[in-house]
UniProtKB/TrEMBL annotation:
Domain SUI1 as annotated: residue spans: 365-441
InterPro entries membership: EIF2D (IPR039757), eIF2D_SUI1 (IPR039759), SUI1 (IPR001950), SUI1_dom_sf (IPR036877), WH_eIF2D (IPR057429)
Span list, region Disordered: 80-121
Lineage: Eukaryota, Fungi, Dikarya, Basidiomycota, Agaricomycotina
Residue spans crossing the bilayer: none
Recorded GO MF terms: translation initiation factor activity
Name this polypeptide is given: SUI1 domain-containing protein
Bias kind Pro residues: ranges: 81-98
GO biological process: formation of translation preinitiation complex
Amino acid sequence: MATPWKLPDVGEGDVVGLVSDTEGDGRVSFVGVARVVARGGLRDQLERLLRHRAEGVDRDEGKFADILCIIDDHGSKPALPSFPLPAPAKPLMPPPESEAPAKEDAADEAAEAVAELTVEDKGEPLTASEVSTLLSAALMQTLALLSPSQLPLPSSQLYSAHILPNRPAYIPPERRDDVVIARSEWKKLAKWMKELNKDGIIKTKETKGEVVVTSFDPAHPAIQAHRPFKTIAEDDTKAAKKAAREAATAEVAGTTVNKRGARELAVEEMWKPTGSGVAFWEACGFDHPANALKPAFDAYVTKHGLVGRDFRTITIDEPLAAALGKSMSPGDKVNRDEILRRLRNGVGWSVSVGGVVKKGNLQPVTMCVKTRQGRKQVTLVSGLEGFGVDIDEFADELRRLCAGSASVQPLSGASPKLNLKEVLVQGNQTKLVSEALVARGIPKRWIKDEGKKK
């Protein structure tokens, strides 16, 4: 505080850059980033310091800022570029007359120095300190949005259902699994909760060996200074909605463009709640494409705090129990995969192929090779009706492609009432048949080669 006119008037909660005059020549180097935590910001802290000095009081003013990161704080310490410290646009106080004005180009030189700084991701794992900082940010995000009526909550449930989903979305996807309590400075959730209780952010009590969060202080400076950010949960929800939206809007005359740029039939599985499951799916939002069923379920159990400590176990509530069937009761703890399997089996399915919606599950086009009359092989193709393929026309096409005979016959083993047919082609022609089907726009994932059969 010896030269307050060189310091900017920053408020509590502001993010600031840190510089160091390592050579004592007035030139400084950037060394890191911090968030101001001093009550009232730098101006109030300066006023308190001056008042205490005038009163002859020697008092430690406490922590001014929380360090967010230090440049190159690992391994060897390279020399950092230096530059003249530019005068702040809004200093704490006017400079004395004896203080020479800063050079006009000081700000430009500082900006150039900042532009030359680079941040390289060398693949180092997150440190325990960095993990702790990210979890703390997720906690502040949680408490800033959490309703006091949702408490009390077991600390494990607060952690799994609220803190983890509220981790910042700017964490790279490949690093998100590292941002967990076990890799933090606390190591144990109970230790972290007790520390937060001591700081006055939350209030806890211990019940049957587990820490329970009973309340929190929304007026705490750490919560008040929090700036909202995009969370991992929001990122996942946005990605799921984008996928569903693209699937719905990318169709052009019932087709989509695959990764190779070729047109193919747009095939979309859809589901709709039925029977006792309607109440549960109404709470989630329904009539989703198949790939949105799991995100809808995940969002529901997270919102209602049903996720267990290990993330694999779900505590059943009343709407979910009704959707799962009579064998389930509210309060039961069931494996997540088993619940998803039952939910998929408990909804009504339909499928859109090329814009035409049909009830029931779609079966793939199947191919198999059978041996008849000694060593003579034939290729059988079935399931073409589901994709709107004219079977007689397709048989004619295979005659030309295979330079051999191809015929149409009733599908073996199917009821005559269904009027299902299959194409029989001489020889092992699975490669040519597959290419012909893809050329007609049938996606490869819907073509099944069953190999050779007797």
